[in-house]
Amino acid sequence: MVRAFAALWAAFSSVSISNLVPWAFVSPAHDTFELEKSWGVYSPFHAVEEYIPPPAGCQISQVNIIHRHGARFPSESQTEDILSGVNKLQSAERYTDSRLDFLNTFVYPLGENLLVPLGAMQSFESGETAFHRYSSLVTPDDIPFVRASSMSRVVETSKNWTAGFAAASNHSYYPPLSVIISEEGNDTLQDNNCPTLVPSSHKEMTQWLDVYGPPITARLNSWAPGANLDNKDIHGLLMLCAFHTVASVPYGYDPGSPLPFSPFCPLFTQAEFESFAYSSDLDRYYSTGPGGHLGRVQGVGYTNELLARLTASPVVDHTSTNTTLDSDPDTFPLNRTIYADFTHDAPLMAVFNTLGLFPTPKLNTRQPKSNRIWQTSNIMTFSSRMVVEKLVCDATVRGRDVSDTYVRIMVNEVVQPLAFCGAQKNGPWRGLCQFDAFLESQAYARHDGNGDWEKCFA
Ligand SMILES: *[C@@H]1O[C@H](CO)[C@@H](O)[C@H](O)[C@H]1NC(C)=O
Ligand SMILES: *[C@@H]1O[C@H](CO)[C@@H](O)[C@H](O)[C@H]1NC(C)=O
Ligand SMILES: *[C@@H]1O[C@H](CO)[C@@H](O)[C@H](O)[C@H]1NC(C)=O
Ligand SMILES: *[C@@H]1O[C@H](CO)[C@@H](O)[C@H](O)[C@H]1NC(C)=O
Ligand SMILES: *[C@@H]1O[C@H](CO)[C@@H](O)[C@H](O)[C@H]1NC(C)=O
């Protein structure tokens, strides 16, 4: 909290602290609040836990990484929503609160869609981490096999990751980006192959915005008489705090130092950012998450590719895989040890959903549960990554021989419970599923989505 506070106020030395009522970020109940972790899918990457090495007696024999692109500029439609609010605020006759005074000289500085330096740096660091963690698996003949979906920000993310991997190895190993999968065709790293899939979270987000938006709209309208902001503008301005901040981080930024928070951030309270994060949770839950119609089946193609790699056998899939790519050892080898795939948030969410991670009962659109596991600020930040490790163990636990092959999954370093394949809940063997039990648990993918894929074309 201290870090977030200090940065927030320090970043605006032009705004005298004495002019500001620091009610905005004071909340005795949440003294661990960090602003940048309340932006949902627009939060920059942070490790939610520290990585836990496998239990004694276990060796990692294969690693599969699927990685969201790093921090980016807003999309075209997000830019429209953002500019609507900014223009209305700038058209006000005057400001009654000094927090808005910066708007007298503010010129909107953001581009669209592309990766920003922070996104590139966090992807580079991710590549460094992968090398440090898994270097014992790398040999001159066996370097990571890397694929990316074709959108620029995803390709740039993958290249920064490979550059980080190379740098960490003192340039001994430079994994090429071997396959760029076109988003115009069958692409297991994008959710573009299902014509009847309609991103359906709009209704749920609007219901929630109608709950938390009005008091904010009223306050900002009272600070900017004549602006006539509506609730939708508030959502845009909250997004702008996140996008403007991540875009303001320069190359060479020290990851331990405070973020240069946007002057739009102090317009909102901690509770309001928590509401904004919930809006992001609802958005993803009701699109390719568990609440979305035909969301889960979008993760089947990648999951079947994962099963193929884990078992070193050809891909069996009749959903979004490109059979031309996946039947050719040059574009889909089965004899590597580390695989890294680069994608977007919606398809990665679908993969979580296919596998059965983050089981979450229906999210209420009027009342968030504060202890929910479904928090996009942890599970789907920019540069989020899921890592599937295959482990070969030669060990005894409390006198019992548990030598076997296992699978475990980390999302942003958090070991997933994998209750669906019988993993232990606690202790050093927490989250390890017996290999065959894991394969068995993936029946939905192995059966091409139990009839859901056909609904994409019906
Ligand atoms: C994988 O197979 C290819 C083609 O047979 C071969 O050229 C390559 O050396 C193999 N790589 C490893 C790591 O075994
Ligand atoms: C990393 O990403 C940045 C921003 O998109 C890009 O300009 C740069 O070329 C990338 N680095 C590499 C090594 O590709
Ligand atoms: C890279 O070089 C540094 C400095 O010479 C050395 O400490 C480190 O062990 C090297 N790392 C690898 C992976 O070779
Ligand atoms: C499959 O991949 C090949 C090779 O990249 C490409 O030429 C083809 O258009 C793709 N087909 C589909 C349906 O995506
Ligand atoms: C692309 O996907 C469609 C739908 O699943 C499938 O019918 C087609 O064979 C696939 N094409 C390739 C080249 O894999």
UniProtKB/TrEMBL annotation:
<keyword id="KW-0325">Glycoprotein</keyword>
<feature type="disulfide bond">
    <location>
        <begin position="58"/>
        <end position="393"/>
    </location>
</feature>
<dbReference type="GO" id="GO:0005576">
    <property type="term" value="C:extracellular region"/>
</dbReference>
<feature type="disulfide bond">
    <location>
        <begin position="241"/>
        <end position="265"/>
    </location>
</feature>
<dbReference type="InterPro" id="IPR033379">
    <property type="entry name" value="Acid_Pase_AS"/>
</dbReference>
<protein>
    <recommendedName>
        <fullName>Phytase A</fullName>
    </recommendedName>
</protein>
<feature type="disulfide bond">
    <location>
        <begin position="194"/>
        <end position="456"/>
    </location>
</feature>
<keyword id="KW-0732">Signal</keyword>
<keyword id="KW-1015">Disulfide bond</keyword>
<dbReference type="Pfam" id="PF00328">
    <property type="entry name" value="His_Phos_2"/>
</dbReference>
<keyword id="KW-0378">Hydrolase</keyword>
<dbReference type="GO" id="GO:0016158">
    <property type="term" value="F:inositol hexakisphosphate 3-phosphatase activity"/>
</dbReference>
<feature type="signal peptide">
    <location>
        <begin position="1"/>
        <end position="18"/>
    </location>
</feature>
<dbReference type="InterPro" id="IPR000560">
    <property type="entry name" value="His_Pase_clade-2"/>
</dbReference>
<feature type="active site" description="Nucleophile">
    <location>
        <position position="69"/>
    </location>
</feature>
<keyword id="KW-0964">Secreted</keyword>
<feature type="active site" description="Proton donor">
    <location>
        <position position="345"/>
    </location>
</feature>
<comment type="subunit">
    <text>Monomer.</text>
</comment>
<feature type="disulfide bond">
    <location>
        <begin position="421"/>
        <end position="433"/>
    </location>
</feature>
<dbReference type="InterPro" id="IPR016274">
    <property type="entry name" value="Histidine_acid_Pase_euk"/>
</dbReference>
<dbReference type="InterPro" id="IPR029033">
    <property type="entry name" value="His_PPase_superfam"/>
</dbReference>
<dbReference type="GO" id="GO:0003993">
    <property type="term" value="F:acid phosphatase activity"/>
</dbReference>
